[in-house]
Amino acid sequence: MTVSNEALAELAQCAWRIRRYAVRMGEVQGQGYIGQALGYADVLAAAYGHALRLRPEEPEWEGRDRFLLSHGHYAIAFYAALIEAGIVPESELDTYGSDDSRLPMSGMATYTPGMEISGGSLGQGLVIGVGMALGLRQKKNPAFVYNSMSDGELDEGSTWEAALAAAHHRLDNLVCLVDINNQQADGPSGKVLGFEPLAEKWAAFGWHVQRVNGNDLPAVVEAFDNARALAEPKPRVILFDTLMGKGVPFLEQREKNHFIRVDPPEWQQALAILDQNQPTPITEGVPA
Amino acid sequence: MNTAVAEKKPRLTTSAMIASIASEGQRVKAAPFGKALVEYAASHPEVVGLTADLAKYTDLHLFAQAYPERFFQMGMAEQLLMGAAGGMAKEGLVPFATTYAVFGTRRAYDFIHQVIAEENLDVKICCALPGLTTGYGPSHQATEDIAMMRGIPGLTIVDPCDALDIEQAVPQIAAHKGPVYMRLLRGNVPLVLDEVPGYRFELGKAKMLREGADVLVISSGFLTMRALEVAKDLAADKVDVAVLHCPTIKPLDEAAIVEAVRYKHRLVVVAENHSVVGGLGEAVASALLRHRVQPAGFQLAGLPDAFLDAGALPTLHERYGISREALGRRIKGWLG
């Protein structure tokens, strides 16, 4: 393990805060991709609390690691991470999805500091990532490009065009993060368009592959560290199996839907449950 | 061989004419796009070249030979080509992305729209085989590319006439801030505009190449070359033809068009290597109506709204009204 227990405990706090911010934004709109946000919070905590090189006060710093939110509908989770990272002030949270807000419902580069691309037309992040990784190499800039995508984007042909190209061009500065929650707009991914065996597919395309439980924070952190440290001149993918609604049992158990229905009083209930289960802060001792 | 077949006229073949639209004996320049890009890139290290398995067929191979470390082969993957070009532009490079117009526009439209245009990125999309410049049928004939690309906000669209236009356009589109779509003539490209005194390509400008009292042809692409040829032919019949060349389709030089049409009693014909739907013709019609300018007559000399035939280019240009002879006949017919 490359990080201390103290650091892991802090990341657990970070993930908890991301979940809280996301639920609060969901309440502002009365809807949102909250299931995905809760499921992906641990990955975002590991990214923004541990792996990424950033200067929060300078979101366009040339040396930053680029994080591409290909799945634009995860904006609610991503804004929570930007608040956690200190790039967007917490006070803006109440504007989520409102007119003239910098935090629109689907992520757009032209609206939000720290948002590298306009995602949402699914399957575009990874091709852009290939171009940025080539561009960084051309400039001799050692930054990494992280493309974050949903498992539904595995349906898009462009994802596999990019997968071929990244291996062909030996893009060792490109890391692809795939959230496998197995839910798409029309139902379970396996029924929409089966993509398993996924690890084998990426490996066959020439990528270094890790598949981990995306809600097991130590494993997630270790996967990020492995992806960075790898010496092989090949692109890296981390497949995160996540649980939609993670951390709020009544949402975890809700009939699995891409767009979870949440009734008005449930937002406060969700916050209450998160608060009851707040990870032990480091000042009060570290979990064994 | 039976006599019936032997007596038939020899049929033209498709492949004889795919490399160039130049007619026999015409003055040409080889690969003006590739040469101009190599020259510009010598002093502009930010310029990179990308292609989707068509470097040789878009004249980008010259750039690849000159600057191998700045050339990126994306394979036959047009969504990747456009998306990666956008990504490189985000890192401060100026990518020239080439493929055929059908693939670049139809197949990769959303990637141009969302990745490149929405962020106003400095990507220069240069696509060969525009309109009816191949006999391979609709799979390769980009007869609606301008209609598609005109719908993208902020995208500059260039339809050069000849080798001179192309070599002068390359540095200008490279220096232009924002995305550009250029229709590319490749291989041996006709050279005609050097015969027009004082002509030079200026991005965003239409140029009056010759004046004439009876007909005004407003044209782009190699149809400007045809219009100049027709003007010569009709002069013999005492028909006086003006030619306004509009190599920039978007933004359209509406001021020059309005000035050329207003207060002059002449037939206006818009000639273009593109479907009559959504191209220069409809753009000009819209501009004239909005400016309350009513020409004496108005006709579209574009390609029909149809899936075109396969065959040899001279045959097809004649069939669809954009050969020198057919365009001349159409204009004379409209004059009555």
TrEMBL record, chain A:
Family listed: Belongs to the transketolase family.
Keyword GTP-binding listed: no
Ranges for domain Transketolase N-terminal come to 15-258
Organismal lineage: Bacteria, Pseudomonadati, Pseudomonadota, Betaproteobacteria, Burkholderiales
Which keywords are on file for this protein?
A: Thiamine pyrophosphate
**What cofactor does this protein call for?**
thiamine diphosphate
Q: What is this protein called?
A: Transketolase
Q: Which organism is it from?
A: Ramlibacter montanisoli
Q: Which PANTHER family match?
A: TRANSKETOLASE N-TERMINAL SECTION-RELATED
TrEMBL record, chain B:
UniProt KW keywords: Thiamine pyrophosphate
User: What Gene3D superfamilies does UniProt report for this protein, alphabetically?
Assistant: 3.40.50.920, 3.40.50.970
Keyword presence, Mitochondrion: no
Q: Domain of life, per the record?
A: Bacteria
Domain (Transketolase-like pyrimidine-binding) ranges: 27-191
Q: Which InterPro entries match?
A: PDH/Transketolase, THDP-binding, Transketo_C/PFOR_II, Transketolase-like_Pyr-bd, Transketolase_C
Q: Which Pfam families match?
A: Transket_pyr (PF02779), Transketolase_C (PF02780)
The record's listing under SMART domains reads: Transket_pyr
Cofactor(s) in the UniProt record: thiamine diphosphate
Query: PANTHER family attached here?
Result: PYRUVATE DEHYDROGENASE E1 COMPONENT, TRANSKETOLASE-LIKE PYRIMIDINE-BINDING DOMAIN-CONTAINING PROTEIN
Q: Which family does it belong to?
A: Belongs to the transketolase family.
What is this protein's name?
Transketolase family protein
